[in-house]
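Model the whole thing, not chain by chain.
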Amino acid sequence: MTSQLEPSFGVEIIPVEGELNVGPQHPGSGHMRIYVKLNGDIIEDVDLDVGYVHRSVEKLSEVRNYMHLIPLIERPAILDSIHMNLGYIMAVEKILNVDVPERAQYLRTLVAEVNRIASHLYGMGILAIFLGHSTGFMWGFGDREVWVEILQAITGARVTNSYIIPGGVRRDLTPAIKEMIEKAIVYQRKKIQDWYKILVNNPNIRARLENVGVMSKENAIKWGAVGPNLRASGVYYDVRKIEPYGAYDKVDFEIPMYKEGDAYARTLVRFEEMEQSMRILEQVIKQIPDGNILSDRFFKQIPPVRLKKWWEGQRRVVFPGYYASFRPPKGEAISRVEAGRGELAYYIISDGSPKPYRLRMITPSYRLIYVFKELCKGARYADLVAIYGSLDYFPPEADR
Amino acid sequence: MSAPNDNLAKIIQDLNSKFKVNGKVEGTNRATIIVDKSQILEIANYLKQIGFDHVKAVTGIDYPETEEFEVVYHISSYSDLALAKVIVALREKTSYKDPVFPSLFKVWESVWTGERETYEMLGIVFEGHPELRRMFLDEDFEGVYPLRKSYKLKQEGVFVDKPA
């Protein structure tokens, strides 16, 4: 069948139906195979073949103690590991019924926001390289380094921090780290203006993102979208406001929202969230109260000699023996936090043994699988990577 | 713990009297409804009408002692700010002999990924799901469904014996 689009073009367009494999080795797919069914260059349907980095966290949790699970649970999203850690510990604390001291709550908020900025910068870098904008990619990863350095200074690790433990956190804040954060905020504020010049307001990038992958408010709710993607479609939903945890009910911040629901709006939401995160950081540094960073229930169990060496000398917590294989009471708990990519939920069923009977981990990217599939239908093939990048989908996080 | 959400208590009360189910409020913003699988569609439709508009998680649990499967849907709301604070667990059970549940895809489309994974990991069939096939596992994966308790993980020891 031959048809002519417009006589003046003089080009014969032959509609072709076919299938294309994108990935799992394609640079624009991460660890995912996207099987695209095409009609011309319009995507009719996509089949997302996920699971290339599946590491069976849920099954392994049946044979690990609660504490041993912490490093395992952080792995799926190494660029957002504080949130993975935090959500899990909140669920464990609910089962154990532990109170967390005020200072530890502030510290949790502090590291979570530092990690959120780092995570958004990573996402923006990936989006930039998907669109062929190499500078954006390098800037994203360069700027991220600033925040990763801060995480390293606080927690002692660069990516999988394992910072949050039941009843508190492992290390205290020092004046040197406070100064680092203040400097980083000044740097990032200046740099975000440059980001707007080179990426966000760049006419090429705008042409690639505006009116692409439009998700209406109704669809966002129906498909169960999460995080910045949901807020870019005009739904007011952020766990930090809906069900505040940490110190979020004591700091003042706003939730950036857009009505458009296109890839460009999703990008803008992320940039504005970074600014809000920095506002939270400033308030946390100013308001953070004095006190202990571990619940008294566990703190009392640390032997005095070790307490003197580590806590009084370096303000670090050494694990009391309790953590080795504690048995929480029978019961179940569901917790949720707002991770970098959106809502993250943990559902733990305890049968009274030192290992969880069932652990369910619902990550934001996992819930974006269906959203991505539906968004691609009817889009142009060239826009596939723009939609993919704008969702900030992270394959290992979805596979778990 | 602060006082339970009044709104939630009323919803559960209405539901208990209307459908004769076992629903109870647990904690400030959490509730559990235990239903029979024959009435789950009807109850899900009712819950959707009163504002619960998405499913957060679909969890399958294996109980080998009683030879039963349980499926838990955690539902909540995006559009209603009062209901957004709430997470309701909708639970249903079935025996090993009949591992079939009605799919809630027609009520909440957001169960698409969760039901598909539960099918793959536990072998629970959701009738009416549009695309019930494997997603995460290898193409050549063989053996029992991995999240069943009868699937035992092979553990490697820290110390490996020297070959003789």
